[in-house]
Design goal:
This protein is mostly helical and about 120 residues long. The protein contains 4 helices and no strands.
């Protein structure tokens, strides 16, 4: 592994941003989400809602309830690490309001979970 080198006149942040921008330009990839990201967000939120509804309204057995609680926590973490994180950094979408909505998803999940107990 080689030691990273930075231009003396540029700060670490400036150099990092320049390299990131160069990567996306060379790779021809957008810096915001694509259809794959939106599908993943839709699958995660749908899975969260379905597992939550099953837990609250269908009262599964103790073992299944515990497994669903674990699954619900993992899905919530996945939403936080994927949807909310990208929205908070403005990379979920080109639309500002959609990024704000994506960033707000973790707040909504917290509100749902705190009201459901």
């Amino acid at each position: 592994m080689s030691v990273p080198k930075f231009a003396a006149s540029r700060s670490f942040h400036t150099e990092l941003k320049a390299r990131i921008n160069a990567y996306f330009e060379e790779a021809g990839k957008p810096q915001t989400g694509n259809s794959g990201l939106f599908v993943k967000a839709l699958i995660l939120t749908t899975a969260f809602v379905l597992v939550y509804l099953h837990l609250v309204f269908f009262t599964p057995s103790a073992l299944l309830g515990i497994l669903e609680c674990i699954l619900l926590g993992l899905i919530g973490a996945a939403i936080g690490f994927n949807v909310m994180h990208d929205g908070a950094h403005g990379s979920f979408s080109k639309s500002k309001w959609l990024n704000q909505f994506a960033a707000f998803t973790l707040n909504v999940l917290g509100a749902i979970l705190s009201c459901g107990t």
